[in-house]
Write a structure and sequence with these properties.
Blueprint lengths: L4 E17 L4 E16 L2 E15 L5 E2 L9 H22 L5 H13 L7 H9 L5 H11 L2 H15 L7 H14 L3 H14 L1
Antiparallel strand pairs: 1-2, 2-3, 3-4
Length: 202
């Protein structure tokens, strides 16, 4: 009688969703699985052995990743965070100066549209300015966490250009810019450099 013993890894599904696949370079569907090695008899799993760990597998390219990859934002989440964060930046800098200034408001609206919110207008700006100031902090911090150094500097420079749309930076606007730099994850030296360079070039 022929007896066939063997070893086999059997996977258990833990979840599905969408993540950013580095190999594909975009958002893709994934499956999250945990594996365990089994002793098989006639290809039937009988005796469980050690666990082989968890992984995330891209359903497009089949690449496997460690589960920490799920902590990274998807492209859609990054785009949403950019627009939401920029709206918060705009509200903070406008409140520090003259929120009624037509030039500053126009510049602010253009900045948010440039960040990806094509529908942003005076109505949305007014609503953002009416929100409590505390709401802006976590949104700006979340934006800064997703940006590279150069992008953080660009974001701060954009805020300064908004503040300077109707004249030189006031003391309150300068303090607000430094506060924004801190929320974005920039050092004080970086903030001073960006503020000075932007003032020279506006």
């Amino acid at each position: 009688m022929l007896i066939i013993w063997g070893l086999r890894v059997i996977y258990r599904m833990l979840g599905r969703g969408v993540f950013f696949c580095r190999r594909c370079g975009g958002d893709r569907d994934y499956r999250h699985r945990a594996g365990r090695r089994w002793i098989t008899f006639f290809f039937i799993p009988l005796i469980p052995l050690m666990k082989t760990g968890e992984h995330v597998q891209c359903l497009t390219c089949k690449t496997r990743y460690v589960t920490e990859v799920l902590k990274l934002p998807t492209t859609v989440e990054m785009e949403a965070a950019l627009a939401t964060g920029m709206r918060a930046v705009v509200a903070v800098i406008l409140r520090a100066g003259d929120p009624a200034s037509p030039l500053a408001r126009r510049r602010a609206i253009d900045a948010v549209i440039g960040a990806g919110d094509a529908d942003y207008d005076e109505t949305w700006l007014a609503a953002d300015l009416d929100e409590p100031a505390d709401i802006a902090r976590p949104r700006i911090a979340a934006l800064g966490a997703q940006l590279q150094v150069e992008a953080r500097e660009w974001c701060l420079a954009e805020a300064i250009r908004i503040a300077m749309a109707d004249g030189p930076l006031s003391g309150a606007e300068r303090a607000a810019a430094e506060h924004l730099a801190n929320l974005l994850g920039m050092t004080q030296a970086q903030a001073i450099g960006v503020i000075a360079l932007t003032e020279q070039n506006v």
